UniProtKB/TrEMBL annotation:
Top class in the EC scheme: transferase
PANTHER family the record matches: G-PROTEIN COUPLED RECEPTOR 150-RELATED, NEUROPEPTIDE RECEPTOR-RELATED G-PROTEIN COUPLED RECEPTOR
Any one GO biological process: cellular response to hormone stimulus
Name of the protein: G-protein coupled receptor, putative
SUPFAM superfamilies: Family A G protein-coupled receptor-like
Main subcellular location of this protein, as a coarse class: membrane
Pfam assignment, any one: 7tm_1
UniProt keyword annotations, A-Z: Cell membrane, G-protein coupled receptor, Membrane, Receptor, Transducer, Transferase, Transmembrane, Transmembrane helix
Location(s), subcellular: Cell membrane
Entry membrane topology: Multi-pass membrane protein
Enzyme Commission code: 2.7.10.2
Organism: Ixodes scapularis
Length: 248
């Protein structure tokens, strides 16, 4: 989501620049290549992320400080408990999702930390975003209950907050396995593709021989070649497996 917003903003900057500057289309295109290239867009995204990190950290830290110091004096209300959890969730988004996105942009969108850290960061990023969303949902449910059924007994604020944090794990934990599933899917597609390439000619050949009623319908050299190609599938499959399981 954050990446799509930044990409849209960078595209709009490029579009506005083309209208505001003069010159012929050819000169304009050359100017865009030198001024509004990939590095320019990267700098725009990094600048926006830094601003969002600063504002989010400052604002959510103030909210947490005010609510926690207030709690020392007296108990927090139900709404204050939920908003405290929302501030913590938003800080998590800032420190995990935004910060990791900024580092990724600075490094040219190249991941160098390996597969294990990639999965860990994806789990944390998804958990942070989901926790913020689900805490907002719990606030909406609490306010709906207070307005529609003010006298009805409803779950306490800490139970609602706990449910939101636990629910955030559901879309997060599958990220541990999603990359493994993608790798397995690619390997399966490649194995199936190798089977098609090596066996379809042999199957077509056998159908031609069966329906023609004559063994001389095809050259003996072609028959022998297609037979060898079909058998080669068994030699190709193990190397496909080795290829996918030796990648870092």
């Amino acid at each position: 989501m954050l990446e799509r917003i930044l990409h849209t903003y960078a595209s709009s900057v490029e579009g506005n620049s083309s209208f505001s500057s003069g010159g012929s289309p050819k000169n304009q295109s050359r100017s865009d290549d030198t001024v509004l290239g990939p590095r320019y867009h990267s700098h725009v995204r990094i600048f926006i992320i830094v601003i969002m990190i600063a504002f989010s950290t400052a604002g959510n830290s103030v909210v947490c400080w005010k609510l926690l110091t207030r709690r020392r004096r007296r108990c927090l209300s139900k709404a204050q408990v939920l908003f405290l959890n929302l501030a913590v969730a938003d800080l998590l988004v800032t420190l995990v999702t935004m910060t990791s996105q900024m580092v990724w942009e600075i490094m040219g969108r190249i991941w160098v930390a390996g597969d294990a850290f990639c999965r860990m960061f994806k789990v944390l990023q998804t958990f942070a975003l989901a926790s913020s969303t689900y805490v907002i949902v719990s606030i909406a449910l609490d306010r709906h209950s207070a307005i529609v059924s003010p006298l009805a007994k409803c779950p306490g604020p800490w139970k609602l907050a706990t449910a939101a944090w636990v629910a955030a794990l559901m879309p997060s934990l599958p990220n541990i396995y999603v990359f493994r599933l993608i790798k397995t899917l690619r390997m399966t597609v490649l194995v199936f593709g190798a089977f098609i390439v090596t066996n379809v000619p042999y199957m077509v050949q056998e159908m031609v021989l069966a329906f023609s009623g004559s063994s001389g319908a095809l050259s003996s050299s072609i028959v022998a070649l297609f037979g060898v190609i079909s058998a080669s599938n068994s030699a190709i499959n193990p190397y496909i497996y080795i290829l996918f399981h030796t990648r870092k």
